[in-house]
């Protein structure tokens, strides 16, 4: 059972209504996570603004989705795993095997794998990485801008993971099976 209410878009007003309208226009739907974030227009607007800003960064949309999957797996967020698997397959057209590998921080592309490993390291060390961690990323060809964006993507997904885990948001995307170790 959900712990926070997903608002009905037909029953909201003010800033929440404006944000819901923008989401509806862009996505054609208002996912349950955003409907739930709408309880605080500041939270929803902050999420949308950071997500929007990162969409214009150095890292591709595909890489952003792969980071989301790596972080969501680390944080056991079933909602985000379902959402980002769906987005990865349908919107960025990533191969399902690539998406599944990203959950463990793996990629056939060495630079992408280094980015995913950096994201996983940020999570496992609560952001307290060391020189070796950063140098490993740089030695893999990741620029300072890409490192900064990896941190931002990781933080954005920590926000959504924690939010959805706390809210127990009803999953409105196809469910994703647990990884088999």
UniProtKB/TrEMBL annotation:
Residues 41-85 form the Carboxymuconolactone decarboxylase-like domain. It comes from the Bacteria. Pfam families: CMD (PF02627). NCBIfam families: ahpD_dom. This is Alkyl hydroperoxide reductase AhpD. The lineage of its organism: Bacteria, Pseudomonadati, Bacteroidota, Flavobacteriia, Flavobacteriales.
